[in-house]
Amino acid sequence: MKLFKRIMAVTLAAVMVAGITPAFAEEAPAVNFDTPVSFTFASAGKQGSTDSSMIEEWIDRIQTESGGMITVDYQPGAALGNQYETFQQTIDGQIEGCTAGIATYQSYNPNCEIFQLPFLITSYDLEWKALNTPEWQAILKQTEEYIGTVYICGAIDSGMRHIGMVSKPVTCLADLQGEKIRTASSAMLTEALKLLGCNPTPVDYTEVYSALKNGQVTGEDVNYGSAYFQNHFEVLTNWTEIGMYPYPSFHVFNKDFVDSLPEGYWDFMQGVMNECMEKFFSETVVQGDAFCKKGMEENGVVVSELTDYDAWVEAVQPLIDKYTGDDVDPLMKDFVIAVEALKEAE
Known about the structure:
- There is one protein chain.
- By secondary structure, this protein is an alpha/beta fold.
- The protein folds into 2 domains: about 10-160 and about 245-290, Bacterial extracellular solute-binding protein, family 7 (D-Maltodextrin-Binding Protein, domain 2, 3-Layer(aba) Sandwich); about 160-245 and about 305-315, 3-Layer(aba) Sandwich (D-Maltodextrin-Binding Protein, domain 2).
- The protein has helices at about 10-20, 50-65, 85-90, 100-105, 125-130, 135-145, 175, 185-195, 210-215, 225-230, 255-260, 265-300, 310-315, 315-325, 330-345; strands spanning about 35-40, 70-75, 95-100, 150-155, 160-165, 180-185, 200, 220, 240, 250-255, 300-305.
- It has a 6-stranded mixed beta sheet, with helices on both faces. It has a 5-stranded mixed beta sheet with strand order 2-1-3-10-4, with helices on both faces.
- Helix 1 (about 10-20) crosses helix 15, helix 5 runs antiparallel to helix 12 (about 265-300) and helix 6 (about 135-145) runs antiparallel to helix 15.
- The longest helix has about 35 residues, at about 265-300.
């Protein structure tokens, strides 16, 4: 089935020939470490979780491979505040770096939300390729310019989004009609769920378990990792694998800090991060999903697949048309064209 049909014919062949620029693919160079450097890096993610594992591997490697000349004060689990607070701390130079979800960046540059256009990016392999397209890098560069004081240097993903339900299975679009589904606070994602026929209900991440338990919502738009590590299997009975969109977070550093580093240090840190990211998207998050899926099933959650996937895509076509129309920033449309070219080439 051809998705994103309004733009499929537009310069698609040219994009496929152009290929992608490996923006996050350069390896770490050799560096003469002769000056000690220390910095604080904050994350709201739970230590040891799938998405946090990439950050932890990166920190371990740069400390070890620099011979201890680089040391990191790692602050996971929202120890320094939520992602919005630590992002502002990084902007202000109170801390050197942090990880923040894509919604944080959307508040500075609405173009960022195109990455989560439903049914555009539906696998981790495709997500890694999409992150490396010059079209996405252009949006990140634009975001850096809007903020003015940061470098965006990497990404992780908490997991492709599926549907978890409290008391009924969802195997087709008809099953979803009228259900109160928890979603993140995103205009685009809220509109998508409305087009799918349910009642999207924004609930703070920390309150989702209780919302499911007390009936405030009857299901959730969620990834395997969040559901498993937050014990949602205690209140969910059914799970439908969809992979509707990714939920990336991006690593960011204060620009003044980066510019003050000794020669070669930043290229080394970025290179190691690139290597850790490639491993994360090709192995870690895939294995993490499998582990969490097994845990959900072992705790009684029944996992199903859709019987009418194309109907879901057709239902959100008006949203796809809206975000790829003539009235949107060309950077958004260019990114969609680039990702569709990657899918055609698979």
